[in-house]
Amino acid sequence: MALIVQKYGGTSVGTTERIVSVADKVIQAKMQGNDVVVVVSAMSGETNRLIELASEISAQPAAREMDVLVSTGEQVTIALLTMALNARGCPAISYTGSQVRILTDSMHSKARIKEIDGTRISRDLSSGRVVVVAGFQGMDGNGNITTLGRGGSDTSAVAIAAALKANECQIYTDVDGVYTTDPRVEPRARRLERITFEEMLEMASLGSKVLQIRAVEFAGKYNVPLRVLSSFTEGEGTLITYEEDGVEEARIAGIAFNRDEAKLTVLGVPDHPGAAHQILGPIGEANIEVDMIIQNVGRDGTTDFTFTVHRNDVQRAVEVLNKVANDLGAREVNSDDSIIKLSLVGVGMRSHAGIASNMFEILAKEGINIKMISTSEIKISVVIDEKYLELGVRALHDGFGLEKTA
Amino acid sequence: MALIVQKYGGTSVGTTERIVSVADKVIQAKMQGNDVVVVVSAMSGETNRLIELASEISAQPAAREMDVLVSTGEQVTIALLTMALNARGCPAISYTGSQVRILTDSMHSKARIKEIDGTRISRDLSSGRVVVVAGFQGMDGNGNITTLGRGGSDTSAVAIAAALKANECQIYTDVDGVYTTDPRVEPRARRLERITFEEMLEMASLGSKVLQIRAVEFAGKYNVPLRVLSSFTEGEGTLITYEEDGVEEARIAGIAFNRDEAKLTVLGVPDHPGAAHQILGPIGEANIEVDMIIQNVGRDGTTDFTFTVHRNDVQRAVEVLNKVANDLGAREVNSDDSIIKLSLVGVGMRSHAGIASNMFEILAKEGINIKMISTSEIKISVVIDEKYLELGVRALHDGFGLEKTA
What we know:
Chain A is of the alpha/beta class. The first copy, chain A, has 12 helices and 20 strands. In chain A, 35% of the residues lie in helices and 26% in strands. In chain A, β7 and β8 (145-147) form a beta hairpin. Chain A starts with a strand and ends in a 7-residue tail after the last helix. The model of chain A has no long low-confidence stretch (mean pLDDT 90). Chains A and B meet through α1, α2 and α3 of A and α1, α2 and α3 of B.
């Protein structure tokens, strides 16, 4: 008998009909002989409704009170799902984050889980019950209600799975797994049967948003086998593993892309030690997050410094840089927000050389000019003109044979 | 400096605008130098919305899960009111019933308060905060969320006031106090400045529903001065006291009436010991509540037995009685649901004779026939034809001079 933690997001529990469907799925898992813990989010729309109420009252409500307010969303869902399970003859019991108890730090609205007491859940499971737990929320050491921040229900599920040493943590969502790339861009995109945690982290942070990054990190840290599946269709989904067995070949997991970045360049920076810090220091102070950074080798004693930021921050970044360029005696600042970032992700890169040059060759054949390159152990990212997004993704998907089962 | 517990019901916090008005009232009390604890209900309509969601899922949801569900209603209000207070510069903090902690028994949906730990509230009050507590809810010894049943927020407020030894518990509602009778029936009805707990209990149970009976009982038990006021208009409301000072005169508090009863009579019951029990036993077994009971002295060895029940129970009661009458050899059963009960309430009755005959005389002058009479220490009730309701109330109101200030 296995212990499974299932997590259903807001869309999956968005109406009472859907909650009843979730109950059916839970009972199915129970009937197969498993112990089941279910973690649920607020019904879709509910959190926004509550935030709207708060905004009618205060422009800057205290984070503690926002947590008291929005945590009611999941509390409604746990009660309704438990009723649905009971109505189908399945013994079940609900717990809020405080009741479980999911102990967090006191950082309201973005708390981190410190500890989960699994005693109560284990006792209920032993007595044959399904245990339904409110995701996204916890309690700090002083009994204050905390929330983990939006999407934190994934993290709750993984943390509970870790605490209970569950055999699998299943994240039910509105997609049926992790794909080699976005099927809207490349119709031949294929669902991956498995992906490693590291690949998943790279895929997630690059825009293929299926799971909360923190949840994936958490799962990796505690070796919790994680599976992404659809609430609405049958299927095996994608298993996220921490083992790399059977990926000896030059395996590429997929292609991620990000449309939200813009490129900034400071040209003709006098090439002396500390220039990079003098440029990025003020950017950081302005709370602008930087992604890729490239400093070209200097000619004639100057260097060109290029980096990417979120498109929303371009205006502010340019203002900061104009001042910095002036102080540094740099020649000019320019920005380009008609770019996208394309990334090839795969643990196979570790053991196989030549993947980068292979990638560049494929893009070159299509006449796509590469503006920036950045590499990590299991990822190669390039910045290209945004008009080449579809072409680039399809060429790489085809070039690396991603439509074929590994 | 006084400690005041204020309670605002669902209508008073029915919209975000009204919650802001409540914040203003709370701040007013605080500015007058008082420590203030506020107990709130769910926004009007919210509890029904939640019950409707549950009914879409299950015809008979478990009481434990209903409590988890509906308790979110007050949790939303405490967060919003605290935000409104903060936004006006008033330090405040919210607590759910579990957090306070309001310890109850485990009777879900109709739990009774066993104990309140005032430590946390007292500490917050000392630091200058207004404390906002969710009414209607608590926690049992195992950490399960419980509710006190509809209207239980009044009880929460009184219980907190008792635990903190508050100087006054103010119940804000949509009426501005307790009246000598229903102003819709007698426009000259007058707001009472004070009423005793016992009178209030009689008035409340007889249909002048302003306060939860349990809250009044609780307040009486712990000698908590209780005041009923309007959320929407200024005014002193009605103070409910447990002292009877200054009511030496033949004081009548008011006139209550009840339209919901029906009269049943078993005629020609052979007059032997045990007949009353033989009649009322089966009625009790059928879960029918009996209010007034009268057994007339028998003639020719038989007696007539009359009592009142709720109108909804008449059909069932007649069925039970027909069988009973048959067994007993009684002559006949008849029922009358075109009656009402009229009650004169006042602690002055204790020390003053003649009030009953005075009452009967006033009714007789108007040609109103009395069908049943029942008396208690501070109340005289009569059953009359329902068509005489308005006439009877006005005649008594005038006859006892209730429009004049005591």
